[in-house]
Recover the amino acids of this structure.
């Protein structure tokens, strides 16, 4: 049963990510990506890692949703996108090489001596507790570093986006045809406004 | 009152209250206070209380504004101008129309067509009288001009019908002879007002 | 209390539970449209649907027949595949989320019932120990329905609806998570069964007295999550025709609303289990009835608010969520953390 479920999920995930890579339609690619992410959480649930599964669900649903909003801004979702490929052979070889390398990296230890968990979950702890114990003892430093990096990303994002927040493009457009005197007045009122 | 004055006259009571739109919080702390105050302010919950009260009143006291239209109808004004009716004389049962043709003449949408002839007593009688309701604009001039109060506006406002010619013939509009007893003197549009006698002088004999 | 008796959870029990939850929720979701129309009508001094059947009860059947027989329309330039699966996503995720929601207490079929006698039906179809996170994730995935629907239908109102879906999701999601975090810290578990068992001691033990702020924040976020009136930005008729459902008709349109009502019920159940004592018995009232009453109350509250309050703009929702609600939720989490640390 578990084997069957694994192959079912694995096939679906592979197919969906293939669609993500190969499709020229933004909508198909994004939808396949989202569906693949959701299905990966199925793999986690199968491994009894319910917490990771749920986190996968929550985090990637939000992340892909943000990607969607970018796709909405940049592309016409219902038209195919023209891709520019310099050399199909180079792309194929490079991509293939990276894929083979990744597979080798991850399967070598499996084939070699087998994998044992360095920090086996504490006895009697439920899934979230086990994750929490490991996260806040052994992996505390990486955890905090990741948190700080996220904070840095957030603050820089706010600064980048917030730079010209008081600058309204629509006001500039509207006043282009009017003489410069009115524009000065408009600018003054802009500054006095509710911003 | 000159035209200028007439245009500038004040209608109704002038107790408008100007909203303080100019006053907007400048600092973010003030804006936070405003938003917080607005969301906590009791007014939000008074709104909830009002709708709940209305629900109770609708449910248990039957205060609804709904008229279940095909089953109940609101009384319409006596001066409402719906499909025309032709009245009869209460004494003889004869129709009141004397074939003077004033209604045909005054009709601004030219929808009244009538034909008259002399009958065997050399009285004028209406041989043909139709109103094209596809064109009638229900202005009421015909009822107003009629000297005999013969053509009036009834209260039949549901005018959906299978053919265009429905209600249009003289016989359709005329009060049926067996309903003569229930014909009421028409008080509505074009009828003389109850105090009409006070408003006119007696015509001197010498005229 | 027969606590010593340990029941075996069989797949038959789980299947029956899933079936019961599915049937009840889809029936209530359908019936909810009738209730909504009635309650809104009363609050606006109207009688509401009253012609079909006694008190208009059969209006539901009439609506169903209408939806079934309507033309199933797919716009010419839309993306047909995505357009077709979008409503299914909404409805399916709404029911998937229900898998981890306890709706009624455990019960065992009496022995005299043939075939099913003695089968133990658990309170929850899948009692995974991260129930809350799972529900959040599944309900968040449900928002792909409106998003894909809006983007696939080649309609400017649809696109605006899709954009608003993203805006709304990015606004409320943080508040939902943070507002739930404080109760989770108190209970020390993500399983809704543990939440229920935490508050078995009558009204005084309800979470709402310990976490009033979290309760309010959760309700606000829940209204945004279920796309109900103060935050019904996705398909606000007065502004963007119907938003993401502009081009939909018939059963596909209906699926969106089955999903929406199922989500409303999920939020109502969550609010009652997390904050209001769940399905534990209350004096003489049995647990299942108590649960029904609470869910009914929250459902009614959603309709009540819809009849009373105006809705906000998308930027106002974002402003509210990020600048008011999120700091409040964080504050609540910090204070709860300190209290837990001191008392533990």
């Amino acid at each position: 049963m578990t084997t069957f479920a694994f192959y079912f999920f694995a096939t679906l995930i592979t197919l969906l990510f293939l669609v993500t890579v190969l499709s020229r339609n933004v909508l198909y690619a994004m939808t396949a990506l989202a569906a693949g992410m959701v299905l990966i959480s199925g793999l986690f649930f199968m491994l009894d890692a319910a917490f990771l599964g749920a986190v996968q669900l929550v985090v990637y649903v939000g992340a892909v949703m943000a990607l969607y909003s970018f796709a909405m801004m940049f592309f016409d979702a219902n038209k195919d996108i023209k891709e520019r490929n310099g050399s199909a052979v180079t792309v194929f070889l490079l991509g293939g090489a990276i894929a083979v390398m990744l597979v080798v990296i991850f399967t070598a230890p499996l084939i070699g001596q087998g994998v044992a968990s360095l920090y086996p979950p504490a006895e009697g702890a439920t899934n979230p507790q086990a994750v929490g114990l490991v996260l806040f003892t052994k992996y505390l430093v990486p955890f905090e570093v990741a948190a700080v990096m996220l904070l840095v990303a957030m603050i820089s994002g706010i600064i980048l986006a917030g730079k010209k927040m008081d600058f309204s493009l629509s006001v500039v457009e509207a006043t282009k045809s009017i003489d410069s005197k009115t524009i000065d007045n408009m600018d003054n009122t802009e500054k006095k406004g509710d911003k | 009152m000159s035209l200028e004055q007439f245009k500038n006259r004040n209608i109704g009571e002038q107790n408008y209250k100007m909203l303080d739109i100019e006053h907007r919080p400048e600092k973010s702390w003030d804006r936070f206070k405003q938003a917080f105050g607005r969301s906590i302010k009791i007014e939000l919950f008074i709104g909830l209380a009002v709708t709940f009260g209305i629900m109770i009143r609708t449910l248990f006291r039957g205060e609804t504004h709904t008229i279940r239209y095909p089953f109940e109808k609101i009384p319409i004004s006596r001066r409402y101008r719906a499909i025309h009716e032709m009245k009869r004389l209460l004494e003889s049962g004869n129709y009141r129309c004397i074939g003077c043709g004033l209604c045909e003449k005054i009709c601004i949408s030219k929808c009244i067509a009538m034909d008259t002839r002399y009958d065997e007593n050399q009285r004028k009688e209406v041989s043909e009288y139709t109103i094209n309701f596809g064109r009638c604009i229900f202005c009421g001039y015909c009822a107003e001009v009629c000297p005999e109060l013969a053509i009036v506006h009834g209260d039949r406002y549901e005018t959906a019908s299978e053919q265009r010619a429905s209600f249009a013939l003289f016989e359709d509009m005329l009060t049926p002879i067996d309903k003569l007893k229930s014909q009421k003197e028409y008080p509505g549009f074009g009828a003389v007002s109850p105090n009409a006698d006070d408003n006119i002088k007696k015509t001197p004999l010498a005229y | 209390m027969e606590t010593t008796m340990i029941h075996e959870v069989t797949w038959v029990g789980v299947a029956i539970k899933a079936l019961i939850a599915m049937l009840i929720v889809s029936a209530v979701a359908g019936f909810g449209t009738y209730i909504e129309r009635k309650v809104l009508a009363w609050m606006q001094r109207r009688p509401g649907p009253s012609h079909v059947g006694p008190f208009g009860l059969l209006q539901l059947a009439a609506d169903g027949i209408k939806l079934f027989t309507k033309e199933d329309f797919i716009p010419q330039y839309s993306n047909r595949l995505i357009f077709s699966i979008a409503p299914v996503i909404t409805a399916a995720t709404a029911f998937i989320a229900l898998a981890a929601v306890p709706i009624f207490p455990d019960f065992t079929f009496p022995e005299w019932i043939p075939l099913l006698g003695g089968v133990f039906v658990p309170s929850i179809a899948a009692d995974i120990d991260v129930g809350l996170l799972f529900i959040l994730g599944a309900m968040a995935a449900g928002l792909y329905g409106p998003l894909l629907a809006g983007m696939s239908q080649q309609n400017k109102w649809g696109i605006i609806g899709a954009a608003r879906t993203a805006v709304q999701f990015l606004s409320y999601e943080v508040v939902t998570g943070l507002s739930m975090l404080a109760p989770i810290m108190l209970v020390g578990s993500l399983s809704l069964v543990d939440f229920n068992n935490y508050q078995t001691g009558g009204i005084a033990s309800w979470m709402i007295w310990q976490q009033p702020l979290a309760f309010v924040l959760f309700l606000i976020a829940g209204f945004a999550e279920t796309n109900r009136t103060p935050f019904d930005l996705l398909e606000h008729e007065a502004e963007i025709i119907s938003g993401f459902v502009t081009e939909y008709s018939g059963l596909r349109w209906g699926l969106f609303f089955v999903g929406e009502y199922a989500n409303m019920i999920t939020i109502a159940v969550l609010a009652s289990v997390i904050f209001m004592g769940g399905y534990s018995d209350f004096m003489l009232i049995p647990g299942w009835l108590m649960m029904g009453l609470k869910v009914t109350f929250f459902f009614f509250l959603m309709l009540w608010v819809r009849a009373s309050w105006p809705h906000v703009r998308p930027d106002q929702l974002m402003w509210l969520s990020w600048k008011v609600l999120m700091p409040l939720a964080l504050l609540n989490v910090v204070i709860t953390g300190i209290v837990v640390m001191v008392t533990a």
In short: Chain C touches chain A at residues 77-79, 81-82, 128-130, 133-134, 136-138, 140-141, 143-144, 147-148, 151-152, 154, 159, 162-163, 166-167, 169-170, 173, 177, 189-190 (CB under 8 Å). Confidence is low (pLDDT under 50) at residues 1-5 of chain C.
